[in-house]
């Protein structure tokens, strides 16, 4: 793992659709959503349809689901897909023990990077954000990867379902002091309560965190869905059967998630089991569509930006989090008046794309 954060090497052979979808996913986090909402808002002020579209690029406050709520679970799902492709190669080459050590080290590196991206030690030990986005990706994908080393597709499906059902049972049946059982509102559910008692350091939402302790359990389920999707993609079925399987399975999961919603609401901030199914379903559908269009049909025109970003998602995410793209953009542009304030967001996004292209063209692939 010595080359985890700064390797310069040729990428392993992979499905181009996987990199394209990962890049598509990351572009929205790295500035594309700001560009779209600002441009639409300026071009169509007061338009109700445009306002509804712009709302899709904001997280729901608690219950419900919008496009922007898909970005994080889609990335975790794709991490599982990548693992289903890469882990068997590593096991065949180096053995299962080495694969386990690799998963543990990768998780540790992502946890450390996540802590650093959240401020690190600059505000003192008691202000460290121990759990966050990168930490969740590292922990959940490592757990899913380890399960995949010992379980087949049926066992992984049972493990995923067990995680979701047990999580539902815990939140439904375990009482929260001074509140009782079966509450899912913010601040009074078991997930938030355990964070307030057991999660040290700084929490994102006051005394609880959207990437907290107990909600890591269903997040592992999201990664397992990705592993299952990846195993299906590299299996022996015909390409069109793979496409159909992903899209149909995704549609079924979306339906099951919303059917569960009245009993266990779709809530991203506690990663509810119904949220796992809805987000996992949309992830599978998108993977099927991208696989069909990119790898089956061979439609590659216009994919360049997605491929550049998809090849270095963690590095670009960290650069964005540390403000690198904003600083460079501010130095390249003069201050723009209100009608043209979208130009700042556009410049920041273009700086990110230029950086991604520069790394891609020079074969710089930061492996984590």
Attribute tags:
368 residues, mainly alpha, disordered N terminus
The percent range for strand residues is: under 5%
Write down the overall mean pLDDT: 91
- Please report the distance between the alpha carbons of the first and last residues: 9 Å
Radius of gyration: 21 Å
The helix/strand order is: HHHHHHHHHHHHHH
Report the structural category: mainly alpha
Give unreliable regions as ranges. Answer: 1-13
How would you describe the shape?
A: globular
Give the biggest sheet.
Answer: none
Tally of extended strands? 0
- Helical stretch count? 14
What is the percent of helical residues? 55-70%
How many domains comprise the coordinates?
1
How does this model look, in words?
The model is unreliable at 1-13 (pLDDT under 50). Helices cover 65% and strands 0% of the residues. It has helices at 16-43, 48-55, 71-94, 96-117, 133-150, 153-173, 190-198, 216-233, 239-260, 273-296, 304-311, 313-321, 324-332, 342-361. By secondary structure, it is mainly alpha-helical. It contains 14 helices and no strands. Helix 6 runs antiparallel to helix 8 (216-233) and helix 8 (216-233) packs parallel to helix 10. The chain has one domain (16-361).
């Amino acid at each position: 793992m010595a080359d985890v954060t700064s390797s310069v090497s040729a990428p392993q052979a992979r499905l181009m659709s996987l990199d394209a979808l990962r890049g598509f996913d990351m572009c929205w986090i790295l500035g594309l959503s700001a560009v779209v909402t600002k441009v639409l808002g300026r071009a169509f002020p007061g338009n109700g349809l445009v306002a509804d579209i712009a709302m899709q690029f904001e997280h729901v406050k608690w219950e419900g689901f919008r496009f922007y709520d898909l970005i994080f679970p889609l990335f975790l799902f794709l991490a599982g897909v990548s693992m289903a492709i890469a882990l068997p190669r590593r096991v065949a080459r180096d053995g299962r023990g080495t694969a386990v050590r690799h998963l543990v080290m990768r998780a540790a590196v992502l946890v450390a990077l996540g802590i650093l991206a959240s401020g690190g030690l600059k505000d003192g030990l008691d202000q460290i954000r121990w759990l966050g986005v990168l930490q969740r990706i590292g922990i959940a994908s490592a757990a899913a990867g380890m399960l995949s080393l010992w379980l087949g597709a049926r066992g992984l499906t049972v493990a995923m379902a067990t995680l979701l059902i047990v999580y539902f049972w815990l939140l439904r049946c375990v009482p929260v002091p001074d509140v009782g059982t079966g509450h899912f509102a913010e601040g009074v559910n078991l997930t938030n309560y355990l964070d307030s008692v057991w999660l040290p350091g700084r929490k994102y939402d006051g005394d609880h965190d959207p990437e907290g302790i107990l909600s890591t359990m269903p997040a592992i389920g999201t990664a397992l869905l990705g592993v299952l999707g990846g195993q299906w993609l590299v299996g022996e079925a015909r390409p069109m059967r793979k496409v159909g399987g992903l899209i149909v399975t995704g549609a079924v999961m979306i339906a099951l998630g919303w059917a569960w919603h009245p009993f266990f609401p779709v809530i991203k901030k506690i990663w509810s089991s119904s949220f796992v199914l809805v987000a996992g379903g949309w992830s599978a559908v998108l993977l099927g569509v991208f696989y069909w269009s990119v790898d089956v049909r061979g439609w590659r025109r216009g994919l360049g930006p997605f491929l550049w970003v998809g090849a270095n998602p963690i590095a670009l995410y960290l650069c964005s989090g540390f403000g690198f793209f904003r600083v460079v953009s501010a130095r390249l542009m003069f201050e723009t008046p209100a009608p043209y304030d979208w130009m700042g967001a556009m410049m920041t996004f273009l700086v990110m794309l230029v950086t991604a292209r520069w790394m891609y063209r020079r074969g710089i692939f930061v492996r984590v």
